Amino acid sequence: MYEKYRDRAAFLFVYVEEAHPADGWQMPSNKTDGVIIKRPNQWKDRRRAASQCCLRLNLSIPCVVDTIDDSVDNLYAGWPERLFIIDRDGTIAYAGERGPFGFKPDEAEASLRKLIGPVRP
User: Is the pLDDT of residue 121 over 70?
Assistant: First the structure.
């Protein structure tokens, strides 16, 4: 979606609290994939975890990091993952359900298309 609409909409990936920290609810797949990240106590540690995430996922979308007190997550309830479309006036035009089961990029894209129109050839 980012590659398709990046010339017509601003995109942002916000890294919030780690969903499966090594010192919390660690998933077996995290161990298998070598994703071992402790729950950060300082913002610099969260920033380091976010950097690892963006590199491992090979993200090209601009990435930012939530504050250590989770101010963005507290406002948007974005943990563990969630999609939002925000219109030009700052109003939430689409708020997907929490992921992973509520993570529905096709729904988000349909909402974005309503705001900006179809993709140009």
Answer: no
